[in-house]
Amino acid sequence: MSKPVVRRGWPLEAFVGDVIVCTLEGSHLDQVTEIRVSPAGKGIRVSFGDPLGRSQEPVQASAEALTVTFEIDPSTYPGEKRIELISPAGPSDPLPFLVMM
Q1: Tens of pLDDT along 18-28?
Q2: What angle do CA 7, 76, 5 make, to 5 degrees?
């Protein structure tokens, strides 16, 4: 078993108060059990898939692509965050995610 690897994702930036659907591409993404946002991740909710039905694109959930939804609370402090995909084999390398005013 290998830890998840993210090669790219789009979009990886959002404004305070936004809800965005992001597709991550890489390998071993079907092993992901948790998505961690740091620092603290206060005010940012991450869900697998597109539970709010915001995207026009099909939901991805395979070893090579994973759809996730970021809900950025209006009280979230702006700045660069780091996203880690967690699997039983360990975390992915951090992926930068920018929250703007």
Answers
A1: 999 999 999 99
A2: 15
